[in-house]
Design goal:
single chain; alpha/beta; Spore Coat Polysaccharide Biosynthesis Protein SpsA, Chain A; seven-stranded mixed β-sheet; two-stranded antiparallel ribbon; 27% helix
Amino acid sequence: MINYSVVIQAGGKSSRMGEDKGLLQFGKLKMVEHILQQVSGMGEKNFIVSNEPDGYREFGLPVFSDIYSNIGALGGFHTILTYLETEFALVLACDMPFVNLDLIEYLLSLADGNDIVIPRLKPDEYAEPFRAVYSKRCLPAIERAITANKRRVISFFDEMKVRYVEKEEIHRFDPGELSFFNVNIPENLMEAIRLAGKS
């Protein structure tokens, strides 16, 4: 089994939600707390990345802010891999509340020999960077992308060995694609709570 940490990528205030999504109430828990409960016992040296760190200290994990601010998600990945103390990071977004452990274990099982293991629901289209596994080896390529003023999340992928996990594989574990349900607006939050069977 690979040596990995679970890292929660939490933002700050969402323009569409109007508040920090990871700290939204999700039933009796905060959303990030709900995610952490699902991955309890997984990973080593786990931590959270947030540019609003004070709100996340209550969850008992180290919290780091972006080293490069205002450059979007690529800056988040730079921060994650800079502070990563294990070989790999399992990166989970704070606004994707449903963690399918069978799918996660499958992603982790593919990490050895790859630099990135990332789900992709449509060939040659947008992959899911915040439900994926990254090697510490990606850090120099990310630094080069930032220096070259590139900002796309996938800017460094061409330099790395990437294993895409395609829709057919994903559906073996998560046929409803609930893993990729994203909470962006209040209506999404209400639907997610309903799906989770909470009230």
